[in-house]
């Protein structure tokens, strides 16, 4: 009876130690990932086709991804994370682009020429909305109908 009780106590303490180790690994992993990126924000009017995980690209090279999408003052806000090694000047712009005519969306950073750089938590001054294909086609049809009547 006494040895069975000792075995249960040992298993209990082994379980607690295992839980502490697992929690330590989980929180350590989150901290190390967060320290390798800078987070930036941008405000748009339309973000059709953009979701969490959408690529952030500079000159065709993926440098980050969309981390969060939320609404602030009735406008969509996007939070992106970019590799800390990448320096983005404070006059850079962020635009929503499409890969081909009907491809997936991505965010393109057009790097400016300033010698001052965005810091972690800063906001892009310039942003360009997503182009909705349906709206573009409607405009083309209207132009065609106007020209047809001439």
Inertia-based shape: elongated
Percent of residues in β-strands: 25-35%
Report the mean per-residue pLDDT as an integer: 85
Alpha-beta content class: alpha/beta
What is the terminal-to-terminal distance? Answer: 102 Å
Number of strands: 7
Low-confidence stretches: none
- Output the radius of gyration: 25 Å
SSE order, as H and E?
HEEEEEEEH
In short:
With 150 residues, the protein is α/β, with parallel strands linked by helices.
Written description of the protein model:
It is built from two helices and seven strands; from the N terminus they run αβββββββα. The chain has 150 residues and is an alpha/beta fold. The protein has two domains: 1-35; 38-139, no CATH class. It has a seven-stranded mixed β-sheet, with no helix packed on it. The protein is elongated and about 100 Å long. The model has no long low-confidence stretch (mean pLDDT 85).
């Amino acid at each position: 009876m006494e040895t069975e009780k000792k075995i249960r106590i040992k298993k209990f303490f082994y379980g607690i130690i295992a839980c502490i180790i697992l929690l330590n690994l989980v929180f350590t992993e989150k901290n190390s990932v967060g320290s390798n990126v800078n987070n930036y924000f941008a405000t748009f009017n339309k973000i059709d086709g953009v979701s969490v995980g959408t690529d952030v690209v500079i000159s065709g090279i993926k440098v980050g991804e969309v981390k969060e999408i939320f609404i602030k003052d009735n406008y969509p806000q996007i939070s992106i994370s970019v590799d800390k090694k990448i320096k983005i000047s404070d006059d850079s712009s962020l635009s929503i682009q499409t890969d081909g005519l009907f491809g997936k969306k991505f965010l393109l950073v057009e790097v400016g020429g300033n010698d001052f750089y965005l810091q972690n938590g800063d906001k892009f001054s310039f942003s360009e909305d997503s182009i909705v294909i349906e709206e573009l086609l409607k405009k083309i049809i209207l132009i065609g109908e106007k020209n047809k009547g001439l």
